[in-house]
Amino acid sequence: MGKLRTAIAFGLALVSFGAIVWCTVAARPVAGPAPPQGTAAPNPWVAAAARADPEVGWARTAATEVTIAAAAEADLNEVPEGRIDPRQRQVKVTVVHRLTMVRDDPLIETLRHGAGFPATLQQVTDAAFGAIKVDGAALAPTTRLAPLLGSDQRGTTATFTVTLLRQLGTDALLRLHFAAPNAFPLIVTGRSIAVLPGEWAVLRLEGITPEQERRERLAFTVGAYPVSMTLAPASYGFADVAAPDDFSWATALGVLTAIALAAVLLRSLGEGWWSRIHNRELGAGLALAAPALLIPLAAEDWSALAYVILFVAVPLLALRHAGRVIPTSPPWTTRDLLVITGAGVLIGLGMLSWSWLHGQLPGQALLAGGAVAALAAAGSAVAFSVDLGVRPVIIRLAMLSAEAAIGLLALALWLRALLGGVYPPDSIRLVLALGWAMIPVAAMAVATKRWSRQVVVGAVLISLLVQGWPTEWLDAGSWSLAVSQPEPRIGSLVLTPIVRGVLGLLLLGFVMLVLRLWRLGRQGSAVGDPVAESTMIAVLMVLYITPGGSITLADIDVPLPLLAITSLVAWATARWLLTGPCPAVPEPADQDEHRRLVRAALHRRLLLVSEQELYRTGRTRIGAGELSIPAFEQQRSALEGAMNEHGRHPETAFATSAGCPPWHNAVPAFTVSLLLSLPFAIVYGWPEGADLTSFVFDSRYLLTLPAFGFLYGYFYPRVRGTQPMTKALHLAAAALLTELSGYLPTLAEPDIGAFDKMQVVGIVVGQVMLVCVGLGLFWEWRIMHLAGEPWARVRTLRSVRSLAAPALALVLAAGTTAASSAAGQTVDRILKGDQVTITAPR
């Protein structure tokens, strides 16, 4: 490459970089969605009040009526479901302002002209009546109705209606702040205020002397100064002495379950995992990063550090770990780079469009700067690579350079908007989601021991869903200017991007446990592997963690999973299932050996049945003279000889894995259990959630029994019992004990009748028995199907004994259906929970 071409190449690169820098420096700050308080436009009402005659101003009267009531279902229709916590109170506060004026008041004409309405409605009401603030979490933005005018011979009355929706704890106090009017000169000199508390009782008054004080109404008059009042739920009583909480079973169980789960998780990794230096480095890095994620709870000003750790440091740590574990380098090609940079260009063009629409740069300047940057970068790439002499390579490098220049320009303008404090609100979440996506990419690469393009695409899509549903991403204002609105919630937990990222990590951890079972379960030795057993128990314990309870950190009420007794019982029952007495089972090496074992077992079963039939019919036939003693002895000797030849030990062919690896047995068992469980979703209700992680967490109740079915198939030879149905009945006992343990607080609730409790038990028992008995019948059919034998050889419709198990399942299923139909709202309240009942896991 000659010196001239080198100079040209570097010169064009500098031109491209200079164009990006020029556009960034020339960019203007974008105006926010609302002007700052100090530069607000003059209030037309204040100007009109200043022009009015003093007598006209003294003739004005202002009256405010505040009504407090429980929010009805119609009031909450527009509120996202993730923000509503059924354990708390939803309160509707309706404020009605009335301003009465004489006929010649200039304010009337100003109001009729409606200057700036509806944007200036808040400005008008705050100027005349003063702002009213209500404590509590906002469920929706404050709404204001159009003003209503009423005129007669005496004057004109303007009515303004404001509605606020708040959410408070069941024992929380409600505080109302009546701010002073901010108009100067004052539009009115005095304000008459009436509060209708409804189901609330006035607890405290500050700066208020009531003129009318009754249970249903409190009226007072104030001037241009702020006052406040505090209300308490009328049905809530305050204890004289707070009883010390010396011991809490919930806390003790939570700590015990956390310790047990941590121990099982550590055991599931195995000693071999910890023996590798890169795995220890990963564990140490995650252990150091975990406490830093709690920074926003204690010091909100330092939240940026938590974001850097979760969305930058942890992804880099995961990628570094994956690079050290996977023996091969990523198979990325130039085409992959073109696709990725092309996607970046599409995102960049969106940002450039935002910059043009909101005046960050004029359209001509933006177009010229972008074109110069892209063309100069492409020309520089051509000058650098022309010596290669391969035209496709030169074209691709030129395209990559042009796309990189456009992306760099968009990134620079985005950072400039970010420093100015006005930027597309969802652009932050997009950048964070793309950074977080590197974690599942690295995790899946480590789990599968290879890099995959499909995994990259899937990880990006999942990370976007972790940060919000498509409806949230495609919201009309999410790519315009930031709008003041409350964040989505799960109970009282605000779903900020970092909270969503942490919940996504927990979901990813659960997926990694399942992938570990898949990797181990491809070999038959996993049935007896303690690492696989611990991993399976960890999956069960996670699925049975019950949501509920809360903890207060830095005066913030943070809901946490209540590590309840169900998780401990799941651990104990799983251990009981897998550590019971189990006869030595010769495992078939392949399907042919399984077929031979099953046929030998069928032959042995035929000989046993024949011997029993000979003894049953022999007495009658010998007594009737139809069978002689020598003939009977001859038949008996022949049967005993045949049985001695085939062995008298118990059958084990139906207790083996049928020549299949554990994972291949676990998947059909899980599928059948899930299909049998789905009808009960009508009783429990379909899962809901504000995003992917909350939706998956809410759908755990659909996976708990199928997870027991997964255990049944994965560790089938180790499960207690020697036949599919006996193993299924042992599984039913373990699953039933686990499911019912979650309802112990509900069953101990004195406010619930015995009949309602029986209905709950009937639903749980019916579901467990239907799933487990159905799984046992399916497993009989599967073993016979894999052996190439008809199912009728072990279970026939002509045998009452063979019909006992299916009949039991059908009777219990019918009883469950009747119980769920008769339960109505009462059982729905018990199963889903309310403000009184202690709920169990679904």
Automatic annotation (TrEMBL):
Record keywords, A-Z: Membrane, Transmembrane, Transmembrane helix
Transmembrane among keywords: yes
Keyword Membrane: yes
Residues annotated as transmembrane: 247-270, 282-299, 305-325, 337-357, 363-386, 393-415, 427-447, 454-470, 490-515, 666-687, 699-716, 728-748, 760-781, 802-823
Protein name: Uncharacterized protein
